[in-house]
């Protein structure tokens, strides 16, 4: 399976990730996160595979996160509700998200990405 990254083209971190993939000659698919929100089912699957808490999937520096005052809500709302919120607005989701087989990486940390492609 060709790796896919979910990105927002105007996001600086997404641009860095794409640049890194190209510099390392890694063929990949692209999915615009704003137009193609992750679904509830996808998010549940990614949570399970990544073993990350749902809070790590939130774009804490984004305007929608601040407008909805999510800082306190992510600590108190049930996971199911948080997944619902993430599935309704792609800009609420931290990006980029790298999907490669059973590996799900949230955000761009070069070392993590290098490890993911060593396999």
Describe this structure in words.
There is one protein chain. The chain is α+β, with helices and mostly antiparallel strands and 119 residues long. It has a single domain (4-118), classed as Glutaredoxin, CATH 3.40.30.10. It has six helices and four strands. The protein has helices at residues 12-23, 40-50, 63-67, 70-76, 79-88, 110-118; strands at 4-7, 29-32, 97-100, 103-106. A four-stranded mixed β-sheet has the order 2-1-3-4, with helices on both faces. The protein starts with a strand and ends with a helix. The relative contact order is 0.22. The mean pLDDT is 94.
List key phrases describing it.
119 residues; alpha+beta; Glutaredoxin; 4-stranded mixed β-sheet; 6 helices; 4 strands; 45% helix; 13% strand; globular
Q: Specify Rg, calculated over alpha carbons.
A: 14 Å
Helix content: 40-55%
CATH superfamily: Glutaredoxin
Structural class: alpha+beta
The strand line-up of the biggest sheet is 2-1-3-4
List the domain count as a whole number: 1
Low-confidence stretches: none
End-to-end separation: 13 Å
Order of helices and strands: EHEHHHHEEH
CATH-derived architecture? 3-Layer(aba) Sandwich
Give the percentage of residues in beta strands: 5-15%
| Average predicted confidence as pLDDT | 94
Q: How many separate helices?
A: 6
Top-tier CATH class: Alpha Beta
Number of strands: 4
Shape designation: globular
Report the major sheet. 4 strands, mixed
| CATH topology group | Glutaredoxin
């Amino acid at each position: 399976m060709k790796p896919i990254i979910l990105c927002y083209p105007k996001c600086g971190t997404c641009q860095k990730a794409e640049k890194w993939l190209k510099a390392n000659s890694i063929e990949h698919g692209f999915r615009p996160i704003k137009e193609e929100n992750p679904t509830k089912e996808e998010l549940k699957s990614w949570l399970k595979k990544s073993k990350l808490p749902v809070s790590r999937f939130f774009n804490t520096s984004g305007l929608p996160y601040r407008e909805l005052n999510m800082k306190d809500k992510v600590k108190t709302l049930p996971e199911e509700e948080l997944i619902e919120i993430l599935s309704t607005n792609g800009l609420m989701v931290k990006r980029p998200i790298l999907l490669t087989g059973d590996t799900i990486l949230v955000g761009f940390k070069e070392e993590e990405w290098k490890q993911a492609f060593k396999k």
